[in-house]
Amino acid sequence: MSLNPHSYSDASHLIEPSTLDVHAPDHLNRKGPKHGIQLSQKDASTILSRFAPGATLSAYKVSTRGYNNRLYHLIAKLAVGATDKEVETEEEYIIKVCGRYWHRTKTETEVVGIWIANTHAHLPTPMIREWDADGTEFGVEYTVMPKLPGTPLNLIWDELGKEGKLGVVKQLAGMVVKFKTKIPDDVLPQGKIGNWVAVAVCKEGKAKRLTGFDVGPTLDGDGPWRTYKSYLHTQLEKQLAIARRQSVLVGMSCVWPRVEKLLERLDEDETIVDDTHFVFTHGDLDAQNVLVQQNMHDASRDVPTITAILDWEWSGMFPAEEEYFASYGFLEEDTALFYDLLEEGGVQTPRTIPHYGQRKLLYDIKENIAPWFLTDHSEPGDEEVKKQVESAKETVKSSLEKLGY
Questions:
Q1: Where is each Aminoglycoside phosphotransferase domain found (predicted)?
Q2: In the chain, what are the domain boundaries?
Q3: Strand partners for 74
Q4: Fewer Cβ in 10 A, N or C end of the chain?
Q5: d(CA 325, CA 360)
Q6: Which residues contact 389 (CB under 8 A, 6 or more apart)?
Q7: pTM of the model
Q8: Tens digit of pLDDT for each residue in 6-20?
């Protein structure tokens, strides 16, 4: 889990950009998403001028946090008021520079996801002030948003008392109910699986403004799809092709024929249930993407207030169960209460989603054929890497067996 830059409690992760080695391998000793990704202070100043004319940068730092994106922290000075009564104010912004594995879709998905969640579900989210999903002007894609008050929930969750955790669970459930049930059907494109794509953008001064969107390809470039089976077939086929190109995954080759068998029979296998109904999904709604403010005098007794839901870059329209595969992992013993609250609000949970267990097995196969954190590995012979490969192989084997393959 990566920590979030939207925190006033600790600035130790902010360093001078000149001291950062943008080509250093990540903590998995891979050339990860941020490899070679950077944005100069000059380019940041140009971006700032598009939505805050006359503002000047007084501080420009880069965060050592974040795994998929390079995060820059800006402090901008801006004169406000009449000429003879000008007052200089400071505003703080985050520039999120997209990692190198994605082109256009991830950036546009965040812009659209935030707009829908804020405008139609009235959730607390950062507001995108400017973005570029093309990447040709400065060599990178980016979004810019104000730095928000609060602390990432994953930093304080274990310190919270029972009352504090209960309060957060209730607030989070209420927000999930809002974006799952309160957005009109005519706002959300129906009948397609995929992430978001901006189909209409206009200029507001020098900055961009979203005026239209649709369901488009997923972040890996495939789709959209009209049915669950067609979505699953594409994903399994793609992951299998990736696995075959990765020398680090050769130890998994014994399961590939069984995955091929699943692919061959998928369309005709009536035990695997198809689906054509999909829901608005955040895609990564875990503790690191929830900002909270708490009582600084006694954090253990306080009920923190959720101030923002962050990182909508994986959002889109997906089968209902997929939200639970990548979200809410921090709840643990509070999961049952959370599901109770969601169900009371009309949201399906793993207890009520038809064939949830089967979908989880299929998801585990898809995610473990070519685990993203093992691809492009610089040391395939590392003992820890071998353990990870063996674990992924056993997960695929076990899931296939439970499905009858």
A1: 87-328
A2: 14-214+278-330, 228-274+353-402
A3: 60, 93
A4: N
A5: 7
A6: 248, 249, 251, 252, 374
A7: 0.91
A8: 444 567 888 898 888
Residue 130 neighbours by CB distance under 10 Å: 22
Tokens at 300, concatenated: 């253990």
Least confident stretch, 24-38, 308-322, 384-398: 24-38
Q: State the pLDDT at residue 2.
A: 38
Q: What is the DSSP string of 310-337?
A: ---TT-EEE-TTHHHHHS-TT-GGGHHH
For domain 14-214+278-330, the question of CATH label 3.40.50.720 is answered with no
Rounded Cα distance between 50 and 46, Å, is 7
DSSP string spanning 175-216? Answer: HHHHHHHSS-TTTSPPS-BEEEEEEEEEEETTEEEEEEEEE-
- Concatenated DSSP letters of 230-275: HHHHHHHHHHHHHHHH-GGGGGGGGGHHHHHHHHHHTTT-TTS---
pLDDT tier at 382 (50, 70, 90 boundaries)? confident
With 0-12 CB in 10 A as exposed, 13-18 as middle and 19+ as buried, what is 251? middle
